[in-house]
Amino acid sequence: MITKMNHVSIFVLDQDSAYEFYVNKLGFKVHTDASMGPGMRWLTVCPPEQPDLEISLMAIAEGMMFKKEAAAQMRSMVSQGTFGFGVFECNDLMATYEELKAKGVEFKKEPTKEFYGYEALFKDDSGNWFSLGEKER
Fold first, then answer.
1. CB under 8 Å to 13, separation ≥6 — which residues?
2. Please, which residues bridge with residue 30 across strands?
3. Maximum pairwise Cα distance, the chain
4. Distance (Å, rounded) from C-alpha 42 to C-alpha 56?
5. Is 23 helix (H, G, I), strand (E, B) or coil?
6. Which residues are CB-contacts of 101 (< 8 A; sequence separation ≥ 6)?
7. Cα separation of 76 and 95, whole Å?
8. Quick one: signal sequence residues (predicted)?
9. Mapped to the 3 state alphabet, what secondary structure does 62-113 carry?
10. Which pTM value belongs to this model?
11. Residues paired with residue 118 on neighbouring β-strands, in sequence order
């Protein structure tokens, strides 16, 4: 029986830029940053309060996972914001929104009350978009 998920991938256009975004803007912690041979890097980060979930910042590059044409298509889809989505939680949406906005995070939707709580939408530096929510108390 499956008991939990411990790794998930977010496809990024550039791992160095993604490192800067996820660590220095979102405040995630680096779990693993290791070379995996020429031009390959295993880079995982995790939310500070969820260290058992590693988010792999996976570079979109020709090689083991993608053939040349597929890599180009994937890079296009990610950069246009048509691929990649996730949901993050926080305890105080307005404070987190203001903090991230001050750090240069681009929001697609300001915090609003929804039937399930409060939500804002933002993009990472590659074009992936995310919901940032606070559950209604």
1. 59, 60, 75, 78, 79, 125, 126, 127
2. 45
3. 49
4. 7
5. helix
6. 107
7. 33
8. none
9. ECCCECHHHHHHHHHHHHCCCCCEEEEECCCHHHHHHHHHHCCCEEEEEEEE
10. 0.92
11. 113, 134
User: Locate tokens 């305890």: which residue?
Assistant: 91
Q: What is the pLDDT of residues 94-134, one digit of tens each?
A: 999 999 999 999 999 999 999 988 999 999 999 999 999 99
- Summarised one tens digit per residue, pLDDT across range 50-63 is 999 999 999 998 88
Query: Under 8 Å CB-to-CB from 97, ≥6 apart: which residues?
Result: 107, 110, 111, 120, 132
Rounded to 5°, angle at Cα 19 from 33 and 3:
65
Is residue 127 within 8 A of residue 81, CB to CB? The reply is: yes
